[in-house]
């Protein structure tokens, strides 16, 4: 069935990741009409990447039963540093050869549609703000927890991009000044260095190397790979080290959250991404979120500690392309 024209204008959202490219058609009420996911194949270079984006775009438009002439604009979300006004990808992680790439203009020319560029974490935050868990909020801080820690901040209906397209890099706020852990950026003591998936694995490995007893060791001896998923399984089975690692991660996130609450006083803070331990669907996920809240209540001023909503995000992997479409809606209403 063709979409109701009254739900237009219609936008195309593109979410480029190191593994997959997700593209969807979204209406003006943030409803996804179709979506397609294709492998990024980053080692093949940006030319192949652009062709893949175009292929996924045409597939998504066809699935939506719209014509490309009915698409009003395109929102493009990509990882890493960028120059948003110029539409340039500067040095995106996991995308070799995409350095200083004018991808916004290349995609606009290829599709014949006006296109805007946005950081992927900002886009995901806007997806939750526009059509997800934060749709009734007036301001939002959104953390994505994965290999690293991404963040997006929305105030009013405005994405905080910053003066140099580096706004809301909250995974790199400093939570430990003295002898802090090394972050992949080369800085020490960042939130990402303590609370990302990579950090959880590193802290676990250090504890095991120091002789800490844990059922994780037996799993590794069987050939299991050390991942947050394995650590969470062992936590569910009652392993003391696994429990300690996960709850300590939550407390680090509580410290970072408090800093942002004291800086911008958002109405809502959301957590999404791969390392959320099943979210509200599991006991561990619920305890993880509650531990973040508990740390915030210990550290934040009483009023924001009481009134700020701290929850899990609701859109999952769709947040990026829905938010990218929303960014196109903001730029090309």
From TrEMBL:
<dbReference type="InterPro" id="IPR043129">
    <property type="entry name" value="ATPase_NBD"/>
</dbReference>
<dbReference type="Pfam" id="PF00480">
    <property type="entry name" value="ROK"/>
</dbReference>
<protein>
    <submittedName>
        <fullName>Glucokinase</fullName>
        <ecNumber>2.7.1.2</ecNumber>
    </submittedName>
</protein>
<comment type="similarity">
    <text>Belongs to the ROK (NagC/XylR) family.</text>
</comment>
<dbReference type="GO" id="GO:0004340">
    <property type="term" value="F:glucokinase activity"/>
</dbReference>
<keyword id="KW-0418">Kinase</keyword>
<dbReference type="InterPro" id="IPR049874">
    <property type="entry name" value="ROK_cs"/>
</dbReference>
<dbReference type="InterPro" id="IPR000600">
    <property type="entry name" value="ROK"/>
</dbReference>
<keyword id="KW-0808">Transferase</keyword>
